[in-house]
Amino acid sequence: MKRLFKVLENNKVKVFGIMAIILIIIFSFSITPKHVQNDIFYTIKIGKLIRENGIDGVDHFSWHEGLPYTYPHWLYDFGMSYIYDLGGFDAIYISTCILSCILGICIYFVNSRITKNKLISFLVTIAVLYLLRGYITARAQLVTFILFILFVYNIEKFLENKKVINALAMLVIQTLIANLHVAVWPFTFILYLPYIAEYLFIELEDMILYQKLGIRHLKRKANRIQAKINKNKANDKYIKKLQIITERLLLKQENVQKIKERKDKDKGKEYKIVINKNKNVKWLMIIMLLSILTGFLTPLGKTPFNYTYLTLIGETTHNISEHIPLVLANNIPIICTLIAVFTLITFTKVKISISDLCMLGGLCFLMFWTRRQQSMFVLIGSIAFTRLLVQSFEMSMDKSAGDMVEKCINRFTVFILIVGILGWSLHLYSKVRDDNYINKKVYPIEASEWILQNLDVKNIKLYNEYNYGSYLLFKDIPVFVDSRADLYAPEFNTPTGNVKEGTDIFMDFINSSNITEYYGDIFKKYGITHAILYKNSKMSMLIRKIDSEKYNEIYSDDYFVIYEVITQ
């Protein structure tokens, strides 16, 4: 036993790394919800459709005829349909747990490899997973989270050693993202920009500081005059000009040399912003240009290049909760995160590189623009944050990263971490342990069975709400709308490419459900014969109180009601 403790003591950093991974796996499992999210229902059905028919670019699940569909995450749909066939929603839940654990391990791996500090990387990883818990669900984004953190790792490693394997990894990751979740493929190009911006800033500074353009101009001028002197042999006029230009050139070069010497002397004494010029960024720019080709390595045609643009110019992003701007007052965890970052940069002696500053600033801007990007701010920003945190602790303890870890990792620290993480994980898991996969308050489980048994689903036009449309189509009930928002937007379903010739089914649903437009007019426009509604929805209330003579209530349970349209 003593020998075992001695071995553990001599290899405590490695042992801590193993313990950290085990605790991360436990914590990742504990925050994985059992409730499935609405996208998984159409994901399974589309995956099965792809396996049977391939990608035909047409929708098969709404009752609107001839709607084109882009299959924006066809590869994820394809894979999840196989997983569902293996074990139903049990298999879906297990796969989500596995992906959650892989994500946690990748965050820890990337941060610990970049900063060389396992302890702080572990603590940051746990914090990041907790902040991301709302995004950990059976959606394509969970896979792309893993790919994004590995993508940034390969950028960092390529800039460090310029290995071809890292460049190839970046291209492979971008190809996978283009097929797994095409909407976020353009985001990979954004991740190149902070490193390129730092390089261009330094190049511009050098150009101005070292008067490169002025020196080049004087050299070219001197060469032209020298050529004229050589041609005309002796010419006092040209000789005098050459002497003046040479003196000016020498003076500029002397000034530049003094600036270089002063800059070399002050290197490392920057107050806050560290300026490091990495020549490998030139190669990174080439990789970025080559990576445009990865958008062609999909069966989706031009979709990787225009999907995000079409989404941004439409109305769907203004009406889906995850796309609306972040309201900081409603998000305490993000407030705490921003305070932590601001405190590190402002009130400690840490220095931040231009690339990290641009990365954090850019991600912060995107987060305030659309709140779903807070996941990217937390995930990708964790690398810069960990770097700052490690630097702060090194300064306060006057030790390197390795020495600091050796000093901080002891039996007491390990005991506190194990007890704390296990206790927290148990508490979080207890909240989801008894949940059902499908929440009957959100999805019409009983109502859909009634529809299948009592209505001719192939010959009715059913009006339904956005949140549970995907569950209806999962049950083979054709829908009015579902969470594939792009399918129902005119930017995507236009037959000619002209947005004005598309059908804005999505906004018709929004206007009718919000009662900003009379639902009876929408029903008449589309020839609606039946409507399934949340029992407590505005429309259901108005039908009961005002329009009861136009609608026949044919089904009701605790959460849903179905109406048959009598007159329009």
What's a concise summary of this model?
It contains 23 helices and six strands.
What does this entry look like structurally?
By secondary structure, this protein is mainly alpha-helical. It folds into four domains: 1-138 and 408-437, no CATH class; 141-310, no CATH class; 314-397; 445-565, 3-Layer(aba) Sandwich (Rossmann fold), CATH 3.40.50. Helices cover 64% and strands 4% of the residues. The protein is built from 23 helices and six strands. The chain has helices at residues 2-10, 12-30, 39-53, 74-115, 118-131, 140-161, 164-180, 187-209, 212-232, 236-266, 281-290, 303-313, 332-347, 354-369, 374-397, 401-408, 411-432, 445-454, 469-474, 490-493, 505-513, 519-526, 538-545; strands at 273-274, 352-353, 462-463, 530-534, 551-556, 560-565. It has a four-stranded mixed beta sheet, covered by helices on one side. A two-stranded parallel sheet has the order 1-2. Strand 5 (551-556) and strand 6 form a beta hairpin. Helix 2 (12-30) packs antiparallel against helix 4. The longest helix is centred in the first third of the chain and has 42 residues, at 74-115. It is globular. The mean pLDDT is 86.
